[in-house]
Amino acid sequence: MAEEQILIIDDSTELRSLLESILPFSGYHTLSASTGEEGLELATTLRPDVILVDLELPDTTGLKVIEELNRRGITIPTIMITGYGSEGTAARALRLGAQGYLVKPFTTEEVLSNVEKALVVRRLNREKAQLKAQLDTHARHFRALSAIGRALIDEIDPGQFFQRIVDAGAFVTRAERCTLALLDPVSEQLEVAATRGKLDPVSMTASPQEGATGLRPVLEQSTSVRLQAATGETIALQTGDEVKAVLQVPLKTQVQTIGLLSVDRQDSPSPFDEHDEQMLAILANCVVIALKIQEQAEMAASSRTSAT
Questions:
Q1: 269 and which of 53, 244, 273, 286 could share a cystine (Cβ 3.0–4.6 Å)?
Q2: Are 120 and 164 in a shared domain?
Q3: How many helices (H) and strands (E) does the chain have?
Q4: Which stretch of 81-85, 116-120, 147-151 has the lowest confidence by average pLDDT?
Q5: Alpha helical stretches, state H, 72-215
Q6: Residues 51-66: pLDDT tens digits?
């Protein structure tokens, strides 16, 4: 794969030059070091994709370089370069975690084959790490949504429930702020019911017509909206706040839109993604369910009062 970096640690100028001429033809970038200490510094700071290290170095051995990489927790596929008759040492390198070895003199095909095998391992390890990170994220989000579900069942105070919603909204989307706003049926104004973030909204009451025109579909068409400001610019929210990225989803029943759930970033221009939108939509549906439960409870209480 083009652009991948190969670190060569060898004190032989001739061998480094040979490898530096072979590898770029296959689309790889090369880094070179003539000592173990220099190579370890490059490996630690630049994290190349593969390391080619000679067994014998002026200040140490290739085996000790591998041991030190392991001690530092740096898992970069490493290929040992050895001389003829050093296969036993190469086997020890494999036990330490090396992905392969080259016996001098070696061919171009042997170099490229070993590097490609090591890169396959590197790519698989990266994919494994990415999948683990995704699983960890989904697990945290599931726990957050489970807590919201328990709160629905427990029928806690609406104000407390709304606060849990914005807490969860900020958490699952990594937002700097999450705000829940409900439409007042009498004044037809947006009223902030709960917020979580380092700054409260500029205004706790706002007109649905305020803010950037790009946000209008949230209430007018019951459509989720994701916006990211251009460099040096900001996006005006309904509350008058200026932000660099925003995601808003509608709170909608079967017949109408009754408010919105909004997350934003005031300092970071990092945009929200589809997963953020899906998670926020789930939380918005929980708000609608909670409001419906509250409405039914009030109707039942009113019926009991009338009956007596």
A1: 244
A2: no
A3: 8, 13
A4: 147-151
A5: 87-95, 108-154, 158-173
A6: 999 988 999 998 999 9
- Give residue 87's domain range: 5-125
CATH number of the domain residue 274 falls in: 3.30.450.40
DSSP code of residue 215: G
The answer to whether 164 touches 155, Cβ cutoff 8 Å, is: no
Residues 228, 271 contacting (CB under 8 angstroms):
yes
Among candidate residues 127, 95, 97, 100, the one with its CA nearest the CA of residue 113: 100
Q: Determine, yes or no, domain membership for 150.
A: no
**Amino acid 25: pLDDT:** 85
For the segment 3-44, what is each residue's pLDDT rounded down to a tens digit? 789 999 999 999 999 999 989 988 899 999 999 999 999 999
Q: Among candidates 47, 10, 56, which has minimal Cα distance to 29?
A: 47
Q: How many residues does the chain have?
A: 308
- Which secondary-structure segment (H or E) carries 206? strand 205-206
Query: Which residue reads 């999948």 in tokens?
Result: 131
Q: Which residues of 123-146 are buried (b: 16+ CB within 10 A; e: fewer)?
A: eeeeeeeeeeeeeeeeeebeebbe
Strand 205-206 relative to strand 190-197, pairing: antiparallel
Quick one: pLDDT band at residue 259, thresholds 50, 70, 90?
very high
Instruction: Please count the structural domains in the chain.
Output: 2
| Backbone φ, ψ for residue 91 (5° rounding) | -65, -40
Closest CA to 270 of 248, 234, 244: 244
Position 177: which residue type?
R
Instruction: Output the six-digit token pair for 21.
Output: 């001429």
Q: Evaluate if residue 172 carries a pLDDT over 60.
A: yes
Q: Which value, in Å, is the radius of gyration of the alpha carbons in the chain?
A: 30
